[in-house]
Specification:
heterodimer; A: alpha/beta; Rossmann fold; 5 helices; about 40% helix; about 15% strand; globular; B: alpha/beta; seven-stranded parallel sheet; binds cobalamin; binds guanosine-5'-diphosphate; binds magnesium ion
């Protein structure tokens, strides 16, 4: 993006699934993140809108992704994250790290982390920092 | 390498998915060590054509239709790697929603990687691995860059070229290219105006060539199954013909020829990449000879 900035962390060779669980129609953030991850070198698969947690977990397994990023702006993050983690566990894929972005109130962020979510990113965090954090998580 | 369970519908998808990642990432040396010699290769259908003509949507519908007869079925969907970031957005899958939940169908998205031929790095090894898991058919969607995709011809038993109404300019540009090698030409999105005209353009371009019998042309649209069923029948005919004409040995030789070719190409770029930029200040003949020596030297990875 800005050419003079410090070299962005590389996600080269990492496969990342960006998914939108539930009935949430806000997809701008998910697309912004998908493009930013690609620009940092990742192979990004985007599920499209309104996917069931079970569907997301099956795609994560079939595509052998290194991480799943959920984008949730509906307010139903607690339920949807719990279900997605559960579905991954059912498939024996609880080792795939999950991170979450969107409108997540501060109080819920620690709840999500306690459930096993590796990182929570809201729109206050600059995009470059989000990508750097994800890259670090996966290195 | 993997604890595969290859009863037709009980494929260990996690093991398969992981094996494929390994195979895609493997260096040439690692590939040579682990290369599977596939003896019973599943029939392969290659789907090519410019971006946006509806390849992914069509592949999904074809898979859903054919899996009733040939199961399990694998789909390999390739999208381009960005030359700048080396990253990719693998978007084919979004169009394949309707079949992604079918346990008889396995879909894998791949980035093209270093390969410039419309396919993906290590694709022959990917296909051999899938064969090892007992699939009955494989559909491969290429990057779809237009005319430079002779490569799919080497790997696929049947090659579909997908176009759409208004692809007329493309047809003109392609007349000496891929249009000659396709086994079936699909005029997709036939619900849009101009489908018949495009089919006629194709017929007239093909009519001017004598060397090879013309591929059949079929009109397909997403809101009607008639064309799809017709297309599936043409695929069956073309598969039967390709087996009859060459037989299993010829098929394996063609596959392995491309496989060896790609390994050599990759080795070359590995070795080139290991030379410091300053070496190229020397006379090309000297560097070239040194390069050849390094090529046959014992294993030497990148970096
Ligand atoms: C634009 C917008 C819409 C558009 C959406 C268009 C679209 N196609 O996306 C429209 C007008 C359609 C819409 C509709 C609705 N909206 Co609205 N909408 C917004 C708004 C103003 C901005 C969202 C946005 O696009 N932001 C820009 C992007 C870039 O930011 P972002 O999504 O947050 O993503 C960033 C980070 O969160 C993070 N991120 C996001 N996802 C991910 C994923 C990963 C893996 C990572 C690492 C990071 C990450 O990175 C991004 C870049 O920094 C927000 C308010 C707000 N300021 O957030 C409300 C908001 C999200 N909407 C809201 C509501 C209630 C609705 C409606 C229900 C309204 C209604 N009553 O009809 C409907 C429901 C629509 C539906 N079907 O779901 C509420 C949600 C409340 C809640 N969570 O409890 C909000 C918060 C407004 C509010 N304050 O009440 N909305
Ligand atoms: N009108 C019409 N649109 C179609 C048809 N098939 C696919 N599309 C649309 O064409 C666009 C590109 O489709 P996609 O399958 O991604 O094409 P690809 O890039 O060749 O893989 C999408 O918006 C599809 O919805 C069809 O039969 N008719
Ligand atoms: Mg496509």
């Amino acid at each position: 993006m800005n050419a003079t900035a410090a070299r962005p962390p590389s996600l080269q060779g990492k496969r990342i699934l960006i998914a939108k669980p539930g009935l949430d129609g806000h997809d701008v953030g998910a697309k912004v993140i998908a493009l930013a991850l690609r620009d940092a070198g990742a192979d990004v698969i985007y599920t499209g809108l309104r996917k069931a947690p079970g569907f997301i977990a099956r795609v994560a397994v079939d595509e052998d992704v290194d991480a799943v990023g959920l984008s949730i702006l509906s307010g139903s993050h607690n339920e949807l994250v719990t279900q997605t983690l559960e579905e991954l566990r059912t498939l024996g894929a609880e080792d795939i790290p999950v991170f979450v972005g969107g409108t997540i109130p501060a109080d819920d962020q620690s709840t999500l982390r306690a459930k096993g979510v590796r990182g929570v990113y809201t729109s206050e965090i600059p995009l470059d920092d989000v990508i750097a954090s994800v890259a670090e998580l996966l290195s | 390498m993997s604890d595969e369970t290859s009863t037709p519908l009980g494929i260990d998808r996690r093991a398969l998915a992981r094996s494929l990642s390994q195979v895609v990432r493997a260096s040439v040396d690692a590939t040579l060590q682990d290369a599977e010699v596939s003896h019973s290769a599943a029939p392969r259908i290659g789907v090519t054509g410019p971006p946006g003509v509806g390849k992914s949507s069509l592949v999904a519908r074809l898979a859903r239709h054919r899996v009733e007869r040939v199961a399990p079925l694998a789909v390999i969907a390739i999208d381009p790697t960005s030359p700048n970031s080396r990253g990719s957005l693998l978007g084919d899958r979004i169009r394949m929603d309707t079949v992604a939940d079918d346990p008889r169908i396995y879909i894998r998205s791949l980035a093209s990687g270093q390969t410039q031929d419309g396919l993906s790095d290590n694709l022959p090894e990917v296909l051999a691995t899938i064969d090892g898991f007992g699939f009955a058919e494989i559909i491969i969607e290429t990057v779809g860059v237009g005319q430079s995709e002779y490569a799919i011809r080497q790997l696929a038993d049947v090659e579909l070229l997908v176009l759409m109404p208004g692809s007329g300019d493309v047809v003109q540009a392609m007349k000496a290219g891929i249009i000659e090698t396709a086994d079936v030409i699909v005029v997709n999105k036939a619900d849009l105006p101009g489908a018949e005209a495009t089919a006629n353009d194709l017929r007239s371009v093909l009519g001017r060539r004598r060397a090879r019998s013309s591929p059949p042309i079929v009109l397909v649209r997403h809101d009607d199954d008639k064309g799809l069923h017709e297309l599936s029948g043409m695929i069956d005919d073309a598969l039967a013909k390709s087996v009859r004409s060459g037989g299993e040995l010829e098929r394996r030789c063609r596959f392995n020829r491309y496989r060896v070719h790609m390994l050599a190409v990759r080795r070359l770029s590995e070795v080139l990449g290991s030379l410091p930029a300053s070496r190229f200040a020397e006379h090309p003949a000297i560097v070239y000879r040194d390069l050849l020596t390094r090529l046959i030297e014992s294993p030497r990875g990148r970096g």
